[in-house]
Amino acid sequence: MRIGGLVHARMTSERLPGKPLEKIGKQSAIQHLLDRMLASEFLEPDRVVLCTTTDPRDDLLAATVAATGVSVFRGSTHDVIDRFYNAAATHGFDAVVQVDGDDICADTLYMDAAMHELLAHDDLDIVISRGLPLGLASKAIRFSALERVYRSYIPGDNSTGAFYYFLRSELCRAAELGPVSPGHVHATARLTLDEDADLAFFRAVFSELYTPGRIFGVDELVGLLQRQPELVEINAWLNDAYYDRSDAHVERERLRYRTPRGIREIDVAPRPGVWPYAA
Fold first, then answer.
1. The whole model's pTM is what?
2. Could you tell me the residue ranges of all domains in the chain?
3. Hey, how many other C-beta atoms are within 10 angstroms of the C-beta on 110?
4. How far apart are CA 134 and CA 41, in angstroms?
5. Is 209 left (phi over 0), alpha (psi -120 to 50) or beta?
6. Confidence grade of residue 247 (pLDDT, cut at 50, 70, 90)
7. CA distance linking residue 135 with residue 105, whole number of Å
8. H or E stretch covering 84
9. Residue 43: partners with Cβ closer than 8 Å, 6 or more residues away
10. d(C-alpha 171, C-alpha 77), whole Å
């Protein structure tokens, strides 16, 4: 199988514009994430693809990432399903590790574990992590599932909630992976880059743990947050608003898809611990 990696990011965030290229230590946020993806046993630079948009404001992001040797695919601004499907189809991937560009500490261990689980079960379409702090998880997805969703969904703004198509419809069969160690669990930590407080949090964490050429793991990260709970307090207060805003956005956009029985709408009622972007 040809396995690739897809990471989606853009420069036009309303709350933190330009966040993929914000410096955390001496590297940009997106470079920290790419380093983690490239540490996966399944991925090489020519098989990792930044999925960004055709908006001219993403020109610098695309050029910066391309200069590292990672591929770039540019597509729809708000239609993430379209962007993912066409990126995977263009590169001929049979399955992908998918990571959100905001999740700069997404853990390589769970990228590999999800892909191993997907490959071990021919009847699975997607494998996701659950129970990790927000921002550490990733997904493993078969191209056949991307194609099935692409052929069924009704195009529109799915920039938030795109993975509801895979997890809250009958289009795909999903499996979940829990934490492999109690030391990987933290009830309140927030490790996603969305606002200024998140940037301050990551800069504080990387100043403690980052060494050039070495990737710190989830056990080291959670251990640090347990020893220094004041770090968690920098941005954990943003979590409730994050979930409320995400669910409200999906409900407003009314994600819909086609079935042989007609048009279906995806249930977007809030479910604790089930939001697709939560670990």
1. 0.92
2. 3-259
3. 26
4. 23
5. alpha
6. low
7. 7
8. helix 80-90
9. 3, 4, 5, 37, 97
10. 24
> CA 255, CA 238: separation in Å to the nearest integer?
25
Residue type, 239: N
Residue-wise pLDDT tens digits, 216-239: 999 999 999 999 999 999 999 998
Please, how many CA atoms are within 13 Å of residue 65, restricted to the half-sphere of its CB?
32
HEC string of 190-211 equals ECCCCCHHHHHHHHHHHHHHCE
One DSSP character per residue, 19-46 reads GGG-EETTEEHHHHHHHHHHTSTT--GG
Q: What is the CA radius of gyration of the chain?
A: 18
User: Which residue intervals of 106-238 are DSSP H helices?
Assistant: 108-120, 143-152, 164-167, 196-209, 218-227, 229-232
Cross-strand partners of 175: 127
d(CA 226, CA 97): 29
Strands 139-142 and 23-24: unpaired
Residue 278, phi-psi category: left (phi > 0), alpha (psi -120 to 50), beta (remainder): beta
What are residue 263's DSSP bridge partners?
Answer: 258
Question: Is the predicted pLDDT of residue 277 greater than 60, yes or no?
Answer: no
Helix (H) or strand (E) holding 5: strand 3-8
DSSP 3-state of 246:
helix
Tokens 């099935």 correspond to 148
Buried b (16+ CB within 10 A) or exposed e, 12-32: ebeebeebbebebeebbbbbb
Alpha carbons 74 and 70: distance in angstroms, whole number: 13
Nearest to 57 by CA among 84, 23, 99, 17: 17
Least confident of 17-21, 159-163, 176-180, 265-269: 265-269
Look up the CATH number of domain 3-259. 3.90.550.10
